[in-house]
Structures are given as structure tokens and as C-alpha cells.
Amino acid sequence: MSRRQFVADTAKTACGIGLAGLALSLVADGAGAIAPVAVRPPGVDDEHAFQSACVRCGLCVRDCPYDTLRLATLGEDVAVGTPYFIARAVPCEMCDDIPCVVACPTGALDKDLTNIDDARMGLAVLIDQETCLNFLGLRCDVCYRVCPLIGKAITLERRHNERTGKHAEFIPTVHSEHCTGCGKCEHACVLEKAAIKVVPKDLAKGQIGAHYRLGWEEKAKKGGELVPGIRDLPDRLPGVE
Amino acid sequence: MHIRSGHMVGHDAIQAKGWFGAHKWLLLRRLSQVFFLGLFLVGPLTGYWLVKGNLASSLTLDFLPLTDPYVLAQSFVARHIPELTAILGAVIVVGAYFVVGGRVYCSWVCPLNPVTDLAHWIRQKLGFKGGARFSRNVRYWLLAMTFAVAAISGTIAWELVNPVSMLHRGIIFGFGIGWLVVLAVFLFDLFVSNRGWCGHLCPVGSFYSLIGKVSVVRVSAAGRSKCNDCMDCYAVCPEPQVIQPALKGTAPTSSPLILSANCTNCGRCVDVCAPDVFSFSTRFAGQSDQAVPNSQHQIGEARP
Fold first, then answer.
1. Which of B59, B62, B153 to probe the A interface (max A CBs under 10 A)?
2. CB B56, CB B111: distance < 8 Å
3. CA-closest candidate to residue A83, choices A64, A97, A110
4. Structural element, H or E, at residue A61
5. Among A20, A16, A51, CA closest to A33
6. What is the pLDDT of residue B302?
7. B232, B235, B236, B238 alpha-carbon torsion, rounded to 10°
8. Shortest Cα distance, chain B CAs vs residue A39, angstroms
9. pLDDT for res B296
10. Measuring CA to CA, how many Å separate B285 from each of B245, B257, B281?
């Protein structure tokens, strides 16, 4: 083989492999996000880190006693071969011994998770307040009743029913510090399409600006006025001179 | 390579050893492929969980962990430190293939091998010639590429498209449209390039060939003085470039052992050789009789 031939062949191979690598990178980039309806098993904190760790063996799927988990197949909006569940179809039953996490051989499902109440698979959001029966003033309460952390992850907040003028509304309210994202609420919602849904935490949560301080908290922390000697002027009502 | 006109590959061996004698290793290999796939299917089909998981990682009898070292290595490159179970599983797998031969994975276990073998068989039956030709070293470039993308993307990117795991996982857990990837490999081998996937491209095979560089069990052309230059071994071999150094080595000290990392220990050469030149041996086996340099044929890469 001549030197010229060798250089040409090497360049051709390098270009071909480079293109293949670029294509694979694009595929990997596209697979970085998980469809909002799909929920990861317990013990997944970060989707990107999960995709560096999950070898797609399906041992978590096999050890799930409720057949909640399944492996994504090609054509679904979840990285092919990785485990997930659809809460509306089969929610997570939050087993005390967390068999899926125990089964994981690589640590893609984090074994530091030993109390299932600490799982954060996603976050339930009462996403449609226009169809939720409790928002309409009825006493459905089903999402609240089925919640494994009843009274903590979902509470019923009482407020006045402006429509009737004399009744109360009991508003299902999710608290992110307790919600595990198990999806039992979404599964149980009596509507044809659930008004409460488990979505990825990142999608559900807002974030206060890093510079932002809540005055009343700062005040409590300091135990007194933040700016001593400030003069508090009387508040004026509109229309009152 | 030039095949004698009117000569059917393997005909001499069938005459000499009978049909079963001339297909012994092929049949054993197919049995092995069915056996290993069957192990994984017993659980889903009967509910008795002999083996859970798939070739990426599995648990046998709730006791023995096995993990694909290639997938685990990519995970490591993607900056995940795997747990001990997976590492132990990978060490056991590497150890096993170190003994029986690195690319024994390819010819005795991999579920894609029967697919590409079928494509090759049809190709021969229909007399397809030519097609895309490229270096057998492309697979090592591809192997390096999969690690590079794993490092850059921080994900096990190759597993998003790997036809081997797509097929194995598909059979055990459900395909989706994953069978299209397997079909693509089949059509590629059938129409585009002879032995294109397993023999030139597959990075899984090229990873296992790294173990094959040092693995113990070897095919040996121990009886190479009996070689009658029928060329049938070159015709059936999926990696024919591995044969010549052992069979036709000219140096007085040349070893009859096929030491190339890409020999898959499939044993077809053992089957198809009427004078029984080839046999399974180990890399520690002693010298045997001398090669008879081939004067009639210019042996390059075989192209059946």
C-alpha cells in the first residue's frame, strides 16, 4: 500500500467514523429528555446521571411485584431499554423494601434510598383546576384518600365557595416536601382524563431567585426589626383623603 | 479467493466424516445459541426465574451476577462509578471469555449471529457477489467512537442503537419497533456487504476481541502438513484472514495456533476440513508438524 493510499484510506475511515459519532451524539442528545407522562422508578435523582448508569438489564422490572415498571422500546419517548412507568396505567405501590432499587446491579437506582417515603420519582400537580371536582365544590377527595402520605403529601385546604355563597370548597393541595411522585392520585382520579398528574420535578417546580429574601423570615431569624428606627407611616385606603 | 468450479464447500468433509461429522461444531454452536437465549426465556415464559435480566446484566438463580463488561466500561467512561455487583459480574464474564476465547461471545452466545449467518447463507445460495468492501479494522474505530461519545455525552449512548442488545432485550422484554434495527443489519449483510456487521463493524465483537488477544482456548492447525489446499476453511470462516498465519506459516518456528484476536472459535474450519487439519487446543500447546507452503494459490482475504 502506498503512502498516498494509506493517508486516503485513513482519512476516509476517520470521516466515516466521525459522522457516525456525530449521528450517535445527536441520538444521545435527543434521548436525554424523558416524556412528561413517563415516570422513573424510585432512586433516580437526575435523568442525565441515570443515563450514564443504567445498563438496561431490566432486573428492576423483574423484581417489581406489581408489574408497574417496564423497559422502553424503540419508538417510545423514553431512552430505549430504560425502565419507567405510566402512573395513570399502573402507579408505584411504594413497597417498604423497595425491591427495584435492591435489584439494580449498577447503582443507577440509588441504594442510599432506604425509606420509600424519601423517593422523589416526580411531583404530583393538580394541573387542571377547571375540571377537578373538588374545585367545582363537590367532595370527590379521591386523590387525597388514596395518597400513601395522606394529610402530608396532599392536604385539603378549605376555602369559601363563591358560586353558592354558603358552602366550602376543599382544595386538594400537593406539598413537594412530602410527595414521592408514586402516581396513586393520578391513577385514581375519577375524571376521564386525570386532573392531577405526576410530572418530572424540574417541570413542576418553580425556583425563587437566589437573591430573593422573604422579609418575615429574615425578621424572625434576626428576632427584631431589620432596619432599626424606621418610621412606619399609616396605610391609606383608596378614595380616602 | 477462487473456489474450484463444480466444487461444493464442505463436500469433501461430508464424504470423509459423514454429514453429522462435518457439521458437529455448527450444530453445537446453534444449540448453544438456543440454550443461552432459552435460559433467559424460561423465566418470562414459565414464571420459574432461572435467569433474570438480559445480556447487559443478569442474575442467575438469585445468586450469580453477570454483567457485560463493554456496557459497564461505557458507563464508567460516562462518569458513573458502578456498584460492586455489576463490577463483580463483569469480572466473572471477562474471566470466562478469557478461558474459552474472547469472541466466543460472538459465535456461541450473541443472538444476532444467527441473523447475520442467515444473511450470509442466503447471499451464498443466491450467488450475490461484491458489495461494499472496507477494512476489518473499522470495528476498532467504531469501538473507540462509542467510548468517545460516552465520554462526551455522559451517557451510555451506544446502547440507544446497539442491534445486539436491541434484539436480545426485544425477545425477552418486547421489541417495539426495535426489530427494524435488526432487519437493517440483516439487509446490510445480505445486500450491502458480505459479513459486514459481525466481520467488520460490530463494536461489541471488537471489544470481546480485546479479550481474545490473550484468551486460552484456540483453534490449532495442528495437522497442517495434511492440508490439501481445498480452501474450504477459508470459504466457511467468518474471519478468514485469521487462518493463513497458522495454516501456512513459513518460518520454521511458526505456530499452528490461530492466535488472531478475531477468531471466534466457531469451529466451522474443524467441521469442514476433510483431512482434519484443525482441532481445538490451547495457546500453551506445543509445536506440531510443519506447514506446507502453498504454491498454487495466492491467499489473500477470502471472499466466498
1. B153
2. no
3. A64
4. helix A59-63
5. A51
6. 44
7. 140
8. 18
9. 45
10. 16, 8, 7
pLDDT at B287 over 60: no
Question: What residue type is B279 in one-letter code?
Answer: S
Grid cell digits, residue B25? 461444531
Give the C-alpha separation, A59 to A101, whole Å: 9
Predicted TM-score (pTM) of this structure: 0.84
For residue B295, list its beta bridge partners: none
pLDDT at B2: 46
Q: Is the pLDDT assigned to residue B4 strictly greater than 70? A: no
Q: Does B155 touch chain A (CB under 8 A)?
A: yes
B220 DSSP β-pair partners: B257, B279
DSSP state of B107: I
Nearby residues of B185 by Cβ (< 8 Å), 6 or more positions away = B112, B115, B116, B163, B197
Instruction: Specify whether the CB–CB gap between A183 and A39 falls below 8 A.
Output: yes
Taking the C-alpha atoms of residue B137 and residue A171, their distance in angstroms, rounded to an integer, is: 65
Nearest CA among B72, B169, B86, B53 for reference residue A105: B86
ipTM computed for the complex:
0.84
Q: DSSP code of B157?
A: G
Q: How close is the nearest chain A Cα to the Cα of B157, in Å?
A: 5
The DSSP secondary-structure symbol of B111 reads T
Q: Do A73 and B68 touch (CB under 8 A)?
A: no
Residues across chain B: 304
The confidence score (pLDDT) of residue A241 equals 62
Query: Do A130 and A194 meet the contact criterion of CB atoms below 8 Å apart?
Result: no
Q: Record the cell numbers describing residue B119, joined without a space.
A: 444473511
The answer to whether A103 contacts chain B (CB < 8 Å) is yes
Q: Are A118 and A167 in contact (CB under 8 A)?
A: no
Q: What are the domain boundaries of chain B?
A: 3-25+218-282, 50-211
Q: At what angle do helices B69-77 and B138-153 cross, to 10 degrees?
A: 50
Compute the nearest-CA separation of B209 from chain A (Å).
Answer: 19
Nearest C-alpha neighbor of A88 from the set A68, A61, A104: A68
Partner-chain residue, chosen from B58, B65, B141, that has the shortest CB–CB distance to A13: B141
- Residue B238 DSSP symbol: S
Q: Which residues pair with A86 in a beta bridge?
A: A38
Backbone dihedral region for residue A199 (phi beyond 0: left; psi -120 to 50: alpha; all else: beta): beta
By the 8 A CB rule, do A184 and A165 touch?
no
- Across the range B274-284, mean pLDDT stands at 88
